[in-house]
Design goal:
Length: 385
């Protein structure tokens, strides 16, 4: 089927909720993708931080194939070993509490909001401007961006947005606060690293008033910043965190992970999901977690992140670079969406724009220095106006 035929099917049969780029991708391996015509692309977006171990990693593919041939679904009315083992591994690698599985990052944030609201009934949730926590109603209500929220008002009440500043956040937390919910690094707004001062203020305010501190690590977790979890580099540990995207190695899974204090707040009947933690996705996530929780790989993420950051700063039209590890953004003095289009169609480099002048780069954690150099060369070509 031609691209034109696919576009016509989309026009007549698909709700127009995505602005798709005019490429049909059919195969992936490592940091490379191929389109239907055989053109090869260098992927520095990873399906928005999903295929962080590269496309079709052999160990993840093997885990999925083996499990698919044995058992695909049972529901959460029964036990399966992959889900129980994954929960144990997630807890032991992070906060030491318990895990609720779901299917996506937005669902993980919905679970976190319910957890906090049950722990302190009727309490408000404090969030900061620039955050993005998802598009379902609770997660959207926690996303203080007018353009995203306005068409769907009225939203879920009880969310208090504040400026991403320590003093403003500290002043907003009181005995009526159920939780403070933060992305340690804001992804969708353009890779903005929240200050250490802000994160410490959030921890201190939550401790003082008995609120829960929740970190949304859906994009910045799973090795993306050079440690398994972003909070490990921050000196601040949350009471709960949400993870998804790279957790499944390309398969759809999300999770709410608690520390000990909140581990037993939710009880049977409080929350659920038909497909969550199924044996196939749990097997994929176990393989992905085992591969990512490797100090040699995480050290390489930190080193290559610095190499990429330095290279980006030298490119024409780049006015600033920010981020941590292999979660980076650069500001341009030209139109970023136009650069993304040129990079894709003329130079076979995949990245995206999070604003009119902001490029976001989320390459595979498994790339090498040669991939970084090639991406910089291709991006330089796209920036030649």
């Amino acid at each position: 089927m031609s691209l034109a035929e696919l576009q016509e099917l989309e026009r007549t049969s698909v709700i127009h909720s995505y602005a798709r780029l005019p490429v049909e991708l059919v195969r992936g391996e490592g940091a490379r993708l191929w389109d239907v015509d055989g053109n090869e692309y260098l992927d520095f977006l990873c399906g928005i931080s999903v295929t962080s171990l590269g496309h079709c990693h052999p160990r993840i593919v093997a885990a999925v194939r083996e499990q698919v041939g044995r058992l695909m679904h049972t529901s959460n009315l029964f036990y399966t070993e992959p889900a129980m083992r994954l929960a144990e591994r997630l807890s032991q690698s992070s906060l030491g509490g318990k895990v609720f599985f779901c299917n996506s990052g937005a669902e993980a944030n919905e679970a976190a909001i319910k957890l906090a609201r049950k722990a302190r009934a009727g309490g408000d949730v404090v969030v900061v401007h620039g955050a993005f926590h998802g598009r379902t109603y609770g997660a959207l209500s926690a996303t203080p961006q007018e353009a995203k929220q306005a068409p769907f008002a009225p939203l879920v009440p009880g969310f208090r947005p504040v400026a991403p500043e320590a003093a403003a956040l500290r002043a907003s937390v009181d005995v009526h606060t159920a939780a403070v919910m933060l992305e340690p690094i804001q992804g969708e707004s353009g890779v903005h690293v929240l200050s250490a001062e802000l994160l410490r203020a959030a921890r201190e305010a939550c401790d003082e008033h008995g609120a829960a501190l929740i970190f949304d690590e859906i994009q910045c977790g799973m090795g993306r910043t050079g440690s398994l979890w972003a909070y490990e580099q921050l000196g601040v540990e949350p009471d709960a965190m949400t993870v998804a995207k790279a957790l499944g190695g390309g398969m759809p899974i999300g999770a709410l992970v608690t520390g000990p204090r909140l581990a037993d707040v939710l009880v049977p009947g409080d929350h659920g999901s038909t497909f969550a933690g199924g044996p196939v996705v749990a097997s994929a996530a176990l393989a992905a977690l085992e591969l990512t929780d490797d100090e040699e790989l995480l050290l390489r993420v930190r080193e290559l992140g610095e190499l990429l950051k330095e290279g980006l700063a030298r490119l024409p039209h780049v006015t600033g670079v920010r981020g941590r590890g292999l979660m980076l953004a650069c500001e341009l003095d030209v139109n970023a969406p136009a650069v993304v289009s040129r990079a894709l169609l003329e130079h076979r480099l995949i990245l995206n724009a999070t604003g009119p002048n902001t490029l976001r780069l989320l390459p595979p954690l498994t790339i090498g220095a040669a991939d970084v150099g090639e991406a910089l060369t291709r991006l330089a070509g796209a920036l030649e106006l």
